[in-house]
Specification:
Elements lengths: L3 H9 L11 H9 L9 E5 L4 H14 L4 E4 L11 E3 L2 E2 L2 H19 L8 H17 L3 E5 L16 E4 L7 H4 L3 H8 L9 E3 L4 H13 L4 E3 L4 E8 L4 E7 L4 E6 L5 H20 L5 H10 L7 E3 L5 E4 L4 H14 L5 E6 L6 H5 L7 E6 L10 H7 L6 E2 L3 H11 L5 E6 L1 H12 L1
Parallel strand pairs: 1-5, 1-6, 2-5, 6-7, 7-8, 13-17, 14-15, 14-17, 15-16
Antiparallel strand pairs: 2-3, 3-4, 9-10, 10-11, 12-13
Length: 431
């Protein structure tokens, strides 16, 4: 193995099928490379929606404070190496190659044991831990949960503090059919003595998180009780609000991400900073927070582009995400005709996901598929869509051309659905 391309191919060869749930393989691989995770200070971010935005709200103020911040996120939007980054810069091809070489013996050895072949994500998690501990040496690493929480590879890390943004309907075929089942999986990242911040307000799911925190003796910081946001107002490019907590508050903050729900994600990050400043002397001051929040962005999440006509990209891939997208359209683009291009995975219910758009001024809806093994066909989406004018098209490029031809000067093209779909669209639009 001598090139980055060879390293990527080696990683891709790890199957994700027939994987036995559990953290044993990850922990064994970590031990095989000297337990690099034990040398890292981390923040663990889980939840259904808003994980990526919360990571951005944590990363940017730390950068403003002069700290080196590592991030492990998924999926990527433009380039695979984005998933492992330091201060927003993806891991270099050379460092990725060297990190893969370091992890390769442990991964291949475990594949021969009764524990079975590790998944690509499990191996990548260990590659990230090795890179951060042996090469990048960040002050803090933010670990974003890939799927669920309890059995997610990132749960092998022991952070300073954890975040559960919220609990919604997603991956029911894996995490469980009821919202309580999903909440138990999300709450699985709560560890003994490690505090957790949550913006969840639904009492059913919040009760699950509270029980998990109590059983592990973990201090729980809840939105609306231990911290809150007040004076929320939309402005030309985002939102302004004030943050209040038991520890301290900050008035008149601004974010440039669209969608009211982003103020909650920002508040979760601020609660993390308040805790880490008090108990770990993290040197992130108010001026760093103000500047960092304004700079924070997350590609593919309510990402507005000044094209002709304008485009809004959003990886709204579940019921709650689509509801947030619809709310954002009302808040920031009220009354403007919408041309919706949508794609989703097979396990999603188009009727449920598209319901929030029924009362919006939707001029056209194009249902498409995309290059992904679990992608639903455009025909299936159109057949089950609650919007009668939904039309199935061969691909998003065809839908894009159709929308451009139909759209007026005040219209907005909205491309939404699976994050894998948004990634595909973004790469083509940027090329």
């Amino acid at each position: 193995m001598n090139t980055y391309q060879e390293a990527r191919q080696w990683l891709q060869d790890f199957t994700t099928s027939d994987i036995r749930p559990g953290l044993d393989r990850v922990r064994m691989m970590l031990e095989g490379v000297g337990n690099p995770e034990r040398r890292l200070k981390g923040i663990h971010v889980g939840g259904t929606n808003g994980k990526g935005s919360t990571v951005a709200f944590l990363k940017e103020p730390m950068k403003e404070a002069g700290l080196v911040c590592g991030t492990f996120t998924s999926p990527y939007v433009y380039e695979f190496r984005e998933r492992i980054a330091v201060n927003g810069e993806p891991i270099s091809e050379q460092d990725f190659l060297e990190s893969v070489k370091a992890v390769k013996p442990a991964a291949e050895s475990i594949a021969k044991t009764p524990f079975g072949t590790p998944s690509e994500f499990e191996v990548l998690t260990v590659i990230a831990a090795y890179y951060f501990a042996a090469k990048a040496f960040p002050d803090v690493v933010i670990w974003e949960v890939g799927l669920g929480g309890r059995l997610d590879s990132t749960n092998a890390m022991y952070p300073m503090i954890s975040v559960i943004t919220n609990v919604g309907h997603d991956h029911q075929h894996i995490l469980g059919e009821t919202i309580e089942d999903i909440a138990r999986e999300k709450a699985g990242i709560i560890k003994s003595g490690v505090p957790v911040v949550t913006c969840e307000t639904n009492q059913k799911t919040l009760s699950v998180i509270e029980q998990s925190a109590a059983s592990t003796n973990a201090k729980l910081y809840k939105l609306g009780r231990d911290f809150d946001i007040v004076g929320v107002e939309a402005n030309g490019s985002g939102w302004s609000f004030s943050f209040q907590s038991l520890l301290s508050g900050i008035d008149n903050l601004e974010i440039t991400m669209l969608g009211r729900h982003q103020t909650k994600n920002a508040a979760a990050a601020l609660m993390v900073f308040r805790y880490l400043k008090m108990y770990y002397a993290l040197p992130v001051e108010e001026e760093h927070i103000r500047t960092g929040l304004k700079k924070a962005s997350w590609p593919g999440r309510l990402e507005y582009r000044e094209e002709d006509p304008p485009v809004l990209l959003d990886g709204a891939h579940n019921k709650e995400g689509m509801e947030s997208l619809a709310d954002a359209l009302k808040e920031h683009f009220n009354g403007r005709p919408i041309h919706l291009i949508v794609a989703m995975t097979k396990e999603k219910d188009p009727a449920e996901l598209l319901a929030p758009f029924v009362e919006l001024p939707v001029a056209s809806v194009s249902a498409v598929s995309f290059d992904f093994e679990r992608a639903a066909s455009g025909e299936t989406i159109a057949e089950k869509s609650p919007i009668s004018s939904t039309q199935a098209l061969e691909d998003w490029e065809s839908a894009w051309k159709k929308a451009q031809n139909q759209a007026g000067t005040q219209d907005l093209i909205v491309i939404a659905g699976s994050l894998y779909f948004i990634s595909e669209v973004s790469r083509h639009m940027n090329s």
